[in-house]
From TrEMBL:
Record protein name field: Protein LURP-one-related 10-like
Protein's organism: Cinchona calisaya
Family: Belongs to the LOR family.
Record InterPro entries: LOR, LOR_sf, Tubby-like_C
Length: 203
């Protein structure tokens, strides 16, 4: 029953306004080789701005904030320090209170942290099973998001979109396809966490 509830809840994790009955292609454009590494923008297939991501460099914790196109914060992502696995907690708005927890994400292995990410919704306090899983290679920009374990339905995929021109301009661009009726703001949050884990490894 818990696994069925997970699959049925894909469409309303952040909010129903981020769910549409057709696939959504997102273009992720990240500034590279800058002091604000971790800041990037998310646009739709027509280059319309959808989200902005800001890394809070002066925070005691590694923290990212996802803002909508109007600049309103919709999610705050906080890295939990002093844990064996890389663990992130995602809250609504700019909150950090347990009542506003949206989901928790952690690497499934200390060694293979760049390949697997397990996601747990707030009700899943035991974390005996993951509600969602991300598998793939971040370096190759080739990742798949599953509703549950890797044998479960695919809800989003990342595609490599790296060109020599983008590197010369100091930008890294890649595409993410979000499947119909899947919360695309939730998928963006997962991409931000993957980027943060990779950034921390490179620091």
């Amino acid at each position: 029953m818990a696994r069925l509830a997970t699959i049925n809840s894909v469409g309303g994790i952040v909010g129903p306004q981020y769910c549409v009955p057709y696939p959504v292609d997102l273009a992720i454009v990240k500034k590279v080789f800058t002091l604000t590494d971790g800041n990037f923008v998310v646009a739709d297939a027509n280059d319309n701005l959808m989200f902005k991501v800001e890394r809070k460099l002066l925070s005691l914790h590694d923290k990212r904030v996802i803002l909508d196109a109007a600049g309103n914060p919709i999610l705050t992502l906080r890295h939990k320090v002093l844990t064996a696995h890389s663990r992130w907690q995602v809250f609504r708005g700019e909150s950090s209170g347990p009542q506003d927890l949206v989901f928790t994400a952690r690497t499934s292995s200390i060694i293979q942290f760049r390949r697997k990410l397990n996601i747990y919704l707030p009700y899943n306090t035991s974390e005996d099973f993951c509600d969602f899983k991300v598998k793939g290679s971040w370096f190759e920009r080739s990742c798949v998001v599953y509703a549950g374990e890797s044998s479960s339905p695919i809800i989003a995929q990342m595609h490599k979109k790296l060109t020599a021109q983008s590197l010369l301009l100091g930008k890294d661009k890649f595409m993410v396809t979000v499947y119909p009726n899947v919360d695309y703001a939730f998928i963006v949050a997962l991409i931000v966490i993957l980027d943060a884990i990779n950034t921390r490894h490179d620091d």
